[in-house]
Structures are given as structure tokens and as C-alpha cells.
Amino acid sequence: MFVYNYHHDTGECIGKVPANESPREPGEYLVPAFATPAAPPPTSARECVCYLDAGGGVPASHTDGSWQVQPDWRGLPLWDTATGQPVTILRPGVAPDEIGATDIERADPATVWDGTSWVPDPMLIEQQLTYRRTELLDAINAERNRLEAAGFPYLGKVLDSTPRSVQRITAAALAAQAALAAGQTFTLDWTCADNSTLTLDAVGVIGMPVALAQHAAALHTHARTLKAEAEAAVDQAGLDAIDVQAGWPGGMVA
Question: Most exposed: 8, 80, 175, 245, by fewest CB within 10 Å?
């Protein structure tokens, strides 16, 4: 004779062992607590068998319960139907629908659960589009600002355009204008971005802030074009087609 042990907390069958014969009643076999002589029934996928009483508890005595086939989703990937976040079932006897879950993954955050599948939600799609558009506009501004400080082309060279460099350019241009007004000769060697020098007269020095302003204006024009495209995009594909890195004037992409 065999008895089937079941877990004291879940009632789940945990093994089959030979029963011990009663020392006082030969031919009679002892059934310990949390065990039963009844064999458990077969189960299918995502099921287990538990020994339970009428109230769903686990009886110590086999006479107070019976084997019951229970859903078993422990450790299987599930997703909350309200949020789409992963959830886990830890105990037998709990089905996904009892906790508002599904075994169908939410592949797109702009979808909602309709009871059988994830379907597109217009409100979430619009929210996602607005968020992505804002991200893209911020990226365009950031790239424009970066390029403004990354240097500008002048007389075949690239000159620095950091805030400190712009101050130096402004001061040099004022000095050149003053020299011209006074009829004085003016020349200086300007250090370029590659550490080479550019020898400039007064007119050449005054041309630096002009070139800088033209370069900045061209950057802003391109940024406005990109932002107009972002504002006009009606879906995610349209936003994804906008290349924030491409098309900037001056070739200052380092």
C-alpha cells in the first residue's frame, strides 16, 4: 500500500511513499497527517493537483478533503492587463484572470487590453506621439546649440566658437574697427581650432563676427526646418524619419 503526501501549506502532491503497517493492528496501514491513500488524478498543462477541504484549506487528515485539480501558473510569464507590466503568480490555484493578468505580452505601450487581446488606443497613441515629438524638438535644440559652440568656417579654416572665443572675436573686431577709424594699420595672428594661425588685417578681423553670425543664422534656419517637420509629423514613422544629425550647415559635426 502507498500513501500520497501533500504539502501542508498548498495541498500540492509532493510524493508517493510506502505506507507503514500498524504495529497494533497487523494488516492495517497508517496514514500520517497531510497524506492520503487516494491516488491523485491526472492533470493537464498549467494544472496541478492539491488536497483541499470544502473551504479550500489544506486538511491535516485525509478524511476531511479530496484531490482537486487546480490552475497552476507559477513562474510563467504574465502581464497586468491594466498596466502591461510583468506580474507573477506564486501559489497554485490562482488563474491569470483572477488577478487581472494575461499570458499575452503587451508589445506596444500604446495599446489597451480589450478582454482578449491588446488593441491600439487612440489616446495613448496621441500621448506617445506628443512625448516623442517633445523629445525630438529638444534633441534638435540641443544639436543646434552644440554646433553653435563647435566652431565655424572662415577663410578656409575652422575657428572656435565657444562662449569665451566669441568674447575674444567681439573684442578683436572692436579693436579692428577702432584702428580703421584712426587710420592705423592693424594685423593679428588668430589661433584656429586646429592650432594653426590665420594672419588677418582689420577687415579680416571684422569679418570674423560676420561669418560667425551667418553660421549661427544658418544653424537656426536648419533647426527651424527640422522642427517644422516634427510638428507636421502625424505618426511615429514620420517622427522617426527625421534625422537630427543630418543636413547641418558648415560641416561642424565633430
Answer: 245
Q: Is 43 helix (H, G, I), strand (E, B) or coil?
A: coil
Determine contact, residues 30/24, Cβ cutoff 8 Å: no
For helices 202-232 and 163-181, what crossing angle results, to 10°? 140
Put simply, whether the predicted model's pTM sits higher than 0.85 gets the answer no
Range of the domain at 64: 2-71
Has residue 33 been placed in a domain? yes
User: Looking at the 3D structure of the chain, how many domains does it have?
Assistant: 3
pLDDT digits (tens, 9 = 90+) for 4-17: 999 999 999 999 99
pLDDT, tens digit (0-9, with 9 covering 90-100), for 180-214: 999 999 999 999 999 999 999 999 999 999 999 99
Q: β-pairing, 29-30 with 20-21?
A: antiparallel
Identify which of 144, 90, 81, 146 has the alpha carbon closest to the alpha carbon of residue 116: 81
Helix (H) or strand (E) holding 111: strand 111-113
Quick one: which H or E segment has residue 130?
Answer: helix 122-148
